[in-house]
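Let's practice the habit of predicting before peeking. Look at the sequence and jot down your guess about where helices and strands might fall. Then scroll down.
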Amino acid sequence: MHPADAKAILALKKIPGFNYLVRKYMEYGGESLYRGQNLANHVKVYEDNFPALYRVFKETVTSLGIDEPELYVYNDPYINAYTYGETRTFIAISSGAVEALSPDELKGVLAHECGHIVCHHTFYNTLLYSLVELADSFKGIPYMLFGPLVLALQYWSRRSELSADRCATSIVGAHAYQKVLAKLASGMKSFKPNGKELLNQAYEYHDIVEGSLWGKIQQNCQMAFQSHPQLCERAYEVDRWGKSCIYRKFWLS
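Done guessing? Here is the structure:
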């Protein structure tokens, strides 16, 4: 886990009654709601209907030593994937990702989603996703009622992505995963990144954030309700992780 992720989870657990709230939400249908949506509208992945994708998925799950979650493909031209659930965890990956990414790139995306499972992020993520959906459906009323909780969950979610990126890096390597992030940013099937695009942009972005107090306030306000950190920042953190002693000791030996 990324240290910022572990610290943010510890802060969430200190919110009075928070874990109880999440468990009750999951118990009374939070998890089954999304599984029902998957079965109703998405295509479940088996060896017979998506053999190439299932093969990559099986290799990824085996490498991480976790129980195989359910995998679904959903109709969306954007490159994306997500995972939810606690007792019956699932991963959903977009048709755009399946068509635009190579097998190795798909392995990186799937390893990232499996990283959320390894770190037990799904317990909190399902509640966050539901609150955001409620806000969209009821024109922001849940934000008025649960604003501080949503902000706290969004803050944690951005840090949790860094842990999942570390998991993906441990499977495909830092350089290869940086290529995945660059392709995610462009959305282009024909794009052949060298892996340094977003890393170089990260240094320029840091100049904006650290150059002035106003720049820092602007960027922090822009990110307050986002569940994912900036892609260039993720590439930067992957680079740091790939150069760390821990990574080199356990994954390059």
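How did you do? Residues 141-172 form the longest helix (32 residues).
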